[in-house]
Structure to design on (196 residues):
C-alpha cells in the first residue's frame, strides 16, 4: 500500500492540544488548511521534546545567520493561538517517529511525524536495519504528517506546545510527582497521603 503523506505547506494553523482532563489527557498535533484538518496523537513527552527541539533549532538558525533569518527571537503575542483544537478531533494515526529540519533556501521549518510501526527482528542489528529501511522507504512507508512552517509559525507552535504540556497537574513540592485533586501517595512521606 502506498504511503499516505498529509502535507501542509504552509498550514493555516498548526498546534499542539489535548482532549480530556489533566491526568487523563490525550495529546494531539493538529494541522489545518481551509476545510482540511489532520490530527495525530502522541505522548506528552513527545510534544515537549518537539517544542524544545524546535526552539533550539530556531535559535541555531538565528545564530548561524547572524540574525538575518526571518525567525523571531521569541514568539509574538499577536501570533499566539490559544483556541482549542478544531472539532471533531479524529486521530489519523499515533506518532512513533518525529523529525525536524530547517530548509535554508525556502526559510522554512519542516516537521515530520510518522506513524508508530511495530517491527519484528531477531537481533539489535536486524532491528536497526529494519528501522532504517522503513525510514528510507518514501513509497511504501507508514503514514506521515509533514508540515512546513515559517519561523514565526514555528516559534508560536513551540510556545503553545510547552504551555499545553505545563498546563497539567501541579507537581508535589516534595517528590515532583503529579498531584491528583484527591491527593497522592508521596514516596518522600513514606506513603502518607498528601492533599492537593
Amino acid at each position: 500500500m502506498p504511503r499516505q503523506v498529509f502535507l501542509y505547506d504552509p498550514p493555516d494553523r498548526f498546534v499542539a492540544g489535548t482532549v480530556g482532563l489533566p491526568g487523563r489527557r490525550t495529546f494531539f498535533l493538529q494541522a489545518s488548511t481551509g476545510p482540511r484538518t489532520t490530527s495525530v496523537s502522541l505522548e506528552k513527552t513527545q510534544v515537549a521534546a518537539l517544542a524544545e527541539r524546535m526552539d533550539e533549532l530556531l535559535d541555531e538558525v538565528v545564530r548561524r545567520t547572524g540574525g538575518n533569518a526571518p525567525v523571531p527571537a521569541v514568539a509574538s503575542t499577536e501570533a499566539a493561538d490559544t483556541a482549542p483544537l478544531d472539532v471533531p478531533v479524529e486521530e489519523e494515526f499515533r506518532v512513533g517517529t518525529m523529525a525536524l529540519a530547517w530548509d535554508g533556501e525556502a526559510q522554512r521549518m519542516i516537521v515530520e511525524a510518522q506513524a508508530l510501526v511495530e517491527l519484528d527482528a531477531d537481533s539489535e542489528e536486524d532491528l536497526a536495519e529494519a528501522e532504517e529501511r522503513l525510514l528510507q522507504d518514501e513509497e511504501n512507508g507508514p503514514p506521515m504528517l509533514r508540515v512546513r512552517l515559517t519561523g514565526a509559525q514555528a516559534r508560536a507552535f513551540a510556545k503553545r506546545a510547552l504551555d499545553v504540556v505545563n498546563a497539567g497537574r501541579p507537581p508535589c513540592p516534595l517528590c515532583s510527582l503529579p498531584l491528583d485533586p484527591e491527593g497522592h501517595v508521596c514516596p518522600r512521606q513514606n506513603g502518607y497521603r498528601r492533599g492537593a
